[in-house]
From TrEMBL:
It holds the Pfam family TPR_19. TPR repeats lie at residues 170-203. The keyword Cell membrane does not apply. This is Transcriptional regulator HilA. InterPro entries: TPR-like_helical_dom_sf (IPR011990), TPR_rpt (IPR019734), Ycf3 (IPR050498). It comes from Ruegeria atlantica. The keyword Repeat applies.
């Protein structure tokens, strides 16, 4: 196995076998660390082979989902992979989720197109409706659409459609919750996030979104715990989780830990974390470091303005928002 890894230039190898007896087939699959030879994951599937192509697609989907769980997204990948037998729809859903993590107008437009493709391939698959709903909330929050209220209405419609397909869908409750948060209804949003986690306590993305909402609602200490929970649930968590944790730490006055979290955010997602570090440095009276980070903000976001940024912030305490805006002004960022 080590030789295969060296020859192919890979760290992991998926191997398997197929045994047939009459109309029954047994397929085994295992994921192996090419360097150590250790087994990371293995499973066995017994099926009737009445339709070989249907069996092929089903097993490809199940194996791909399990690899997502093991290697990338934790338990929430298993939830997102359930509800469809259409490998094309599952693949499109996965691509839409990945595209939606990039907070730019262009990336969200791509994510929307791919999520709609997943829905077209399998209209009875609830997960892409949630992904589309999440995209709507991002577009509304960051001003990527002209009509914010229409985007939030579409998000809620997507959540409702997902629940009609699967009444136990936790992401649907979370999408409705984030729409409420963007609408300024933070208490209602927190209730919906908690409903989602009651349905699936292992959903890391839902926990991360609950954390940021708690932080905006002035519940920083609880937000820290929930952000740490999200990171634990998804060992391969995306960089924005570090940003969520950093926000909660900053609002709780844990500046050194916040710096570490925001630095990690910037290392993992190019261009992010610098704005948060500006505020941390101003609040710890290091104006030189704040102005250095302000230059990084303008390097990556040349169109940045404090007024536009303020529209994306969901603080229930407007004085807190004004304090942050004042920090950005002090560091020399444009109004």
């Amino acid at each position: 196995m080590k030789q295969v890894g060296l020859e192919q230039g890979v760290d992991l190898v998926l191997e398997g076998s197929v045994r047939q007896s009459g109309k029954r087939v047994r397929i085994t699959a295992q994921l192996i660390d090419a360097k150590s030879g250790m087994h990371i994951w293995a499973d066995r599937y017994d099926r009737l082979i009445e339709d070989v192509f249907e069996v092929q697609d089903e097993l490809a989907l199940r194996i791909a989902t399990e690899l997502q769980v093991e290697l990338l997204a934790g338990e929430m990948a298993r939830f997102r992979g359930s509800g469809t037998k259409n490998l094309g729809a599952w693949t499109a859903q996965l691509k839409a989720v990945e595209a939606s993590r990039r907070i730019t107008r262009e990336a969200q437009a791509d994510a929307r197109r791919i999520a709609q493709q997943a829905i077209a391939l399998d209209p009875g698959y609830s997960a892409p409706y949630c992904t589309l709903g999440f995209i709507c909330t991002v577009e509304a929050r960051h001003g990527f659409v002209a009509d914010r209220r229409a985007a939030l209405a579409e998000a809620r419609d997507c959540a409702q459609r997902a629940l009609e397909i699967d009444s136990y869908n936790p992401e649907a409750h979370a999408i409705a919750g984030f729409a409420d948060a963007i609408d300024g209804k933070l208490v209602s949003a927190i209730e919906k996030f908690n409903e989602a986690l009651a349905l699936n306590p292992n959903h890391a993305d839902v926990a991360a979104r609950l954390s940021i909402t708690l932080a905006f609602n002035g519940q920083a200490n609880e937000a820290i715990k929930v952000a740490q929970q999200a990171i634990t649930l998804n060992p391969h968590y995306p960089g924005w989780y570090a940003g969520v944790l950093g926000l909660a730490l900053r609002l709780d006055g844990q500046y050194e830990e916040a710096k570490k979290a925001f630095t990690e955010y910037g290392q993992r997602v190019e261009g992010f974390g610098h704005l948060d570090l500006v505020i941390v440095h101003v609040e710890t009276e290091n104006l030189k470091a704040a102005r250095d980070e302000a230059r990084n903000v303008m390097k990556y976001r040349p169109q940045f303005s404090i007024s536009d940024w303020a529209k994306t912030q969901l603080f229930s305490d407007r004085e807190r928002l004004e304090k942050d805006c004042a920090s950005l002004r002090l560091a020399g960022l444009p109004e």
